[in-house]
Specification:
Helix 12 runs parallel beside helix 14 and helix 13 crosses helix 14. The longest helix has 19 residues. The protein has 14 helices and 14 strands. It is of the alpha/beta class and 406 residues long. Strand 5, helix 5 and strand 6 form a beta-alpha-beta unit. The strands form three sheets. Strands 4-10-9-8-7-5-6 form a seven-stranded mixed beta sheet, sandwiched between helices. Strands 1-2-3-12 form a four-stranded mixed beta sheet, with helices on one face. The protein has a three-stranded antiparallel beta sheet with strand order 11-14-13. 42% of the residues lie in helices and 15% in strands.
Length: 406
């Protein structure tokens, strides 16, 4: 077999579809976010750009408290953790952070993973193995990490229409009453920006004897009086059995976690290969995340500014006749609907205006719904918003893209 030909043809296929992904080589400027340096592939001199697609929603990745904690941890503990959690890799920083996350979500325990993806994959697959015959009810728009975890579990799955309570109940009714059941869903869906009816889903879970597994990765740090997410904001956090979150978005660092009852966390710790067989997060990263979580538990300033910026940008885009997808969250999707034009648009934003946005194409979103996903934050100024909307308006006109009535 000509192995290289197989790989080359696979790559050529996604190039023809206009969805071949290229990395932007950037270096964020500490203390001046959203500014960054862009390193062109041709070796030309770097130039300044502004980042509009970062998941560091609140800019906590450059917060002085976070940086100070990371520097201190490096001086005290060195670089790496030195092993898996079972073998020398459980530092005091890990223990402190798990306690802090358990408190954040008002649960008995929490368990750290190396990323949110790994947390979902490991937890959802292990839950099915610990609950023989379990049926997983998965929202149709769940993240790839949740889908992969459910697949790896190897049990029966039912996919219910996105945020459709009637369809979820139809599936629940259709299953044996005594079968173990897990309802897996997200709070904020990161591509459309809509929000799940968490309380109503918990009502159905209680009625049909199901566990609830809630992915809050695009909400932790950002919603609720202490930043615990939408479930906290809506007053239903105590009704969710397992909450999964990330430290890489609102908290600005790296890592993922679950928070739940002590026995659930302990069982996943003891059986999940995605936890057992991987080196633990570096102490400096954990220390930074710990400082971020503690700060956002008591500070609402970042959350309030973040929501205000998102609302301001949505209003400005709509006023300019640009097809922003309205939603109740901080996510700002601008619809393009074609992968080639979407990439051409983002290339032009970078080359001509120094604005960095990545095109969002299939398989992240369905074909025909390609888009820009803008991430305004508290560190973007009003002038930054004006500059962005002006650049988009210019390119929309030049490229003949569809507008909406202003």
């Amino acid at each position: 077999m000509d192995y290289r030909k197989v790989f080359a043809e696979a790559l050529e296929g996604i190039r023809r579809e206009g969805r071949y992904r290229e990395f932007a080589d950037i270096r964020r400027r500490c203390g001046t976010f959203p500014k960054a340096e862009f390193f062109p592939k041709d070796g030309a001199e770097t130039r300044e750009i502004k980042v509009w697609c970062s998941n560091d929603y609140l800019g906590m990745g450059q917060h002085p408290k976070v940086l100070e904690a990371m520097h201190e941890a490096i001086e005290r503990a060195g670089a790496g953790s030195g092993g898996t959690r079972n073998i020398a890799g459980t530092t005091h920083y890990h223990v402190e952070l798990e306690a802090e996350l358990a408190d954040l979500h008002q649960k008995e325990a929490a368990l750290l993973f190396t990323s949110g993806y790994v947390a979902n994959e490991a937890a959802l697959s292990t839950l099915q193995k610990l609950l023989p015959g379990a049926i997983v009810f998965s929202d149709a728009l769940n993240h790839a990490s949740m889908i992969q975890g459910i697949r790896q579990g190897g049990g029966e799955k039912r996919i219910w229409r996105h945020n459709d309570l009637a369809d979820l109940e139809r599936h629940l009714k259709d299953c044996p009453p005594d079968a173990p059941k897990i309802i897996a869903f997200e709070s904020v869906y990161s591509m459309d920006g809509d929000i799940a009816p968490i309380g109503e889903i918990c009502d159905l879970a209680q009625r049909y004897g199901a566990l609830t597994y809630l992915d809050e990765v695009h909400a932790v740090g950002l919603y609720g009086p202490r930043g615990a997410g939408v479930a906290e904001r809506d007053g239903v956090m105590d009704r969710v059995d397992i909450i999964e979150g990330t430290l890489a978005k609102g908290f600005g660092c790296m890592g993922g976690y679950i928070a739940s009852d002590r026995d659930i966390c302990d069982a996943i710790r003891s059986f999940a290969s995605g936890f057992i067989f991987t080196t633990s997060l570096a102490p400096a990263i954990v220390a930074g995340a710990l400082a971020s979580v503690r700060h956002l538990k008591s500070s609402n300033a970042e959350r309030e500014a973040h929501q205000a910026r998102a609302r301001e940008l949505k209003d400005m885009l709509a006023a300019a006749g640009l097809p922003v997808l309205e939603n109740p969250s901080h996510i700002v999707p601008v619809m393009v609907g074609d992968p080639v034009r979407c990439k051409a648009l983002t290339d032009a934003l970078m080359e001509r205006f120094g604005i960095y946005v990545q095109p969002i194409n299939y398989p992240t979103v369905p074909r025909g719904t390609e888009r820009l996903r803008l991430c305004p934050g508290p560190l973007h100024s009003h002038e930054d918003l004006v500059e962005l909307v002006g650049a988009l308006s210019t390119l929309w006109e030049e490229m003949g893209l569809d507008r909406v009535a202003a």
